[in-house]
Write a structure and sequence with these properties.
This protein has 341 residues and is an alpha/beta fold. The protein is built from 10 helices and 12 strands. Strands 1-2-4-3-5-6-11-12 form an 8-stranded mixed β-sheet, with helices on both faces. The protein has a two-stranded parallel ribbon with strand order 7-10. α2 packs across α3, α5 packs across α6 and α7 packs parallel to α8. The N terminus is likely disordered.
Length: 341
């Protein structure tokens, strides 16, 4: 009888200890109440607007999140609340997107300028080191930054953004000629036509699906982008898009393919690439498939690199966050990219 009681007692102690271990592992996900507040960061040409999310109770590990071309900080609205507790994510509108200032008339945008903007944001928010989260073009920019400033990046998470589009010498002259012609038309064009909010939604929804393929974005996902993507017109009788129309131009200089290879070699931090199964505007352009495969070969040499294939379209993180979050959260837990104290 005494032996039986002792065995039962040991079993009870073991089960209690095991329960504490399991529940301690659950803590980051069990207390994931999230909140967000607007942020404004002064820059020489105006301001960078954004929203800062906190997940769970502090203290926090800082993240910075960058959206894709023609999108805005709203692209992360559905995925951030599902992250582990102990994370603070500053989602910014890149220059000429969302509620951020456009650059001066006559000035042009370049990917490496966005890298400098990211540094300005980090400096203003006094972040010595952070985790970078990017979608599409935002992922490209985060990758460039991680290669250039490796000591300031704790981890890199890119959603369907493998690398900047590679440029080759044989296509430079016609591309620059086309760029100049389009730029001239844009600068002569009058202010955008006023629309109703519903007309703006239809243009955003149809335009995104036309660019990245039918089904790229759902109506619900598109409305997440619409909130920061429109503003009242000067007359107040309608709305206009907030993004700078110069973003429809192909980056004048672009990134030469050999430079992209060198940037890829420079990424040494924990690196997750969540790749959507569907094609998008970048993957079907020119020699991009071959160029992407070459860069992926370099990424795979980094022992801290993880490739996750996700069923879905280019905006899968916004359409179906539940498909992306398991990969992101596993990666976050593995490399402790959250504050668990």
């Amino acid at each position: 009888m005494l032996r039986s009681n002792r065995v039962h007692s040991l079993h009870t102690m073991f089960m209690a200890q095991r329960y504490r271990q399991i529940t301690s592992l659950r803590v980051p996900f069990a207390r994931c109440a999230s909140s967000c507040t607007p942020v404004t960061i002064p820059v020489p040409w105006g301001s960078i607007a954004g929203v800062q999310w906190t997940v769970g109770d502090g203290p926090y590990t800082d993240w910075v999140a960058l959206h894709g071309l023609m999108d805005n900080a709203g692209t992360f609205n559905k995925i951030i609340p599902g992250l582990p507790a102990g994370i603070r994510v500053t989602c910014i509108d890149l220059p000429g997107h969302g509620l951020s200032s456009k650059i001066a008339a006559g000035s042009l945008y370049h990917l490496l300028d966005h890298v400098v903007t990211l540094q300005r944001v980090k400096d203003y928010l006094e972040m010595k080191k952070c985790v970078l989260l990017g979608h599409s073009m935002g992922g490209w920019i985060c990758g460039l930054y991680a290669a250039i400033m490796p000591e300031q990046v704790q981890g890199l998470i890119s959603i369907d953004g493998i690398k900047p589009i590679s440029r080759y010498s044989d296509g430079m002259v016609p591309r620059i000629r086309e760029y100049f012609g389009t730029l001239e038309k844009l600068e002569k064009k009058k202010n955008e036509k006023e629309m109703s909010e519903e007309e703006a939604f239809e243009r955003l929804f149809k335009g995104t699906n036309m660019l990245h393929g039918d089904g790229s974005i759902t109506e619900g996902a598109a409305r997440c982008l619409l909130e920061r993507g429109i503003t009242k017109s000067t007359s107040g009788s309608g709305v206009v898009f907030t993004r700078d129309t110069k973003h429809i131009l192909k980056d004048l200089n672009g990134i030469a393919h050999e430079f992209n290879l060198e940037y890829a070699r420079g990424i040494s931090c924990p690196h997750l690439l969540a790749k959507a199964s569907a094609e998008n505007a970048a993957t079907v352009w020119g020699k991009e498939k071959e160029a992407m495969d070459e860069v992926l070969g370099i990424y795979n040499k980094n022992k801290l690199f993880t490739l996750a294939e996700v069923e879905g379209s280019h905006h899968v993180h916004l359409n179906n966050p539940e498909r992306v979050l398991p990969h992101v959260n596993d990666f976050v837990m593995k490399y402790q990219l959250y504050n668990n104290f």
